[in-house]
Amino acid sequence: MHEVSITQEVVAAIAERLGDKRVTVVRLEIGKLSGVVADAVRFCFDLVAEGTTVAGARLEIAEPPGRVLCRDCATEYEADSLIVLCPACGSAHAEVLSGNELRIRSVEVSVPCAAPAAAPRTR
Amino acid sequence: MCGTCGCSANSVTIPLEQRVLARNDDLAHRNREWLAQRDVLAVNLMSSPGSGKTTLLERTIRDLGGDPVVSVVEGDQETSFDAERIRATGCRAVQVNTGAGCHLDAGVVAAALDDLAPPAHSVVFVENVGNLVCPALFDLGERHRVVVASVTEGENKPLKYPHMFAAADVVVLNKTDLLPHLDFDVDAFAGHLDRVNPRAALIRLSATGGTGFEVWTDLVRGWVP
Fold this sequence. Notes:
The complex is a heterodimer of chains A (123) and B (225). Chain A is elongated, with a radius of gyration of 20 Å. Chain A has helices at residues 3-18, 38-49; strands at 23-30, 58-62, 66-70, 76-79, 94-98, 102-110. With 123 residues, chain A is α+β, with helices and mostly antiparallel strands. In chain A, β3 and β4 (76-79) form a beta hairpin. The longest helix of chain A has 16 residues, at 3-18. In chain A, strands 2-1-6 form a 3-stranded mixed β-sheet, covered by helices on one side. In chain A, strands 4-3-5 form a 3-stranded antiparallel β-sheet, with no helix packed on it. With 225 residues, chain B is α/β, with parallel strands linked by helices. Chain B has a single domain, classed as 3-Layer(aba) Sandwich (Rossmann fold), CATH 3.40.50.300. Chain B has helices spanning 22-37, 53-64, 81-87, 106-116, 157-160, 162-166, 186-196, 213-223, and strands at residues 11-19, 41-47, 70-76, 92-97, 123-127, 144-150, 170-174, 201-204. In chain B, β7 (170-174), α7 (186-196) and β8 (201-204) form a beta-alpha-beta unit. The longest helix of chain B is centred in the N-terminal third of the chain and has 16 residues, at 22-37. The A-B interface holds A 1-2, 5-6, 9-10, 12-14, 17-18, 24-25, 28, 35-36, 71, 81-83, 92-93, 102-113, 115-117, 119, 121 and B 2-7, 9-24, 101-103, 105, 133-134, 136-138, 159, 162-163, 166, 194-196, 198. β6 of chain A pairs antiparallel with β1 of chain B, so a sheet runs across the interface.
């Protein structure tokens, strides 16, 4: 299950970019044709994040569908796997255009409030 | 909500826009440069367990007869059986044990290449962990990706593991000497492969019997810088 390694890479990359900032949300993009199962990443995320600055963060995964181009009739269509048949001509030959994404889009971090702790609350 | 003043501005979004495998890909890029500087060809051999990768390598080393020189990085979860088999042919081999890991990555291959110190104009074969899923995602810095399948496995393997077969530039169909005893349809296999990867070259051979093997060794000789 390479999703554990993938998730470890995510956590390591975030730590490298953000140092000891506390991360509250992690946003990933895992395309349907990337070869990585988003559910498996969700499954191991908490375990991998434990003891790091990402521990307890909410994981949001966008899963863009695959877009492929028929090599025979040039029809562009959507595909959720690499085994495809062109809806126009029935050809199985297709070029992947997108859906291979495997990216860390953004994270949310908590920042201390700029207001001094002793400041009186305004109502 | 902020614990100090009750404001809601206590969380900020930081765009990262970073490839998840950026670290591995950077290391793979470094391996590729390291190999190019030394005029060394690296080939990543991938397959399911038991398709005959090690037997293929043993015969490749024998048939090439030292021209070019071959060295091998052996990846397995445990044991050094395969590296011992390769060393018995007289060539250098480094065993990498991944433990629970299901694939080799560019970092472990970099360390193995340092150990091997392959000479100029030689070939390094990286025998990946037997697995048709995970190794497909991890660039090692190789120049060619070869997937080995065997006729004892069933002709629908390319459809069942499309990511792996789509990542190959050569597919070797091994154990063809067993075809008379099996129900394996070679043309159907070729058709399935064509469906997921029409660019891959298909080589049919028997690593034990030797049939078709010179096509493979000629290809490897032609690759050497």
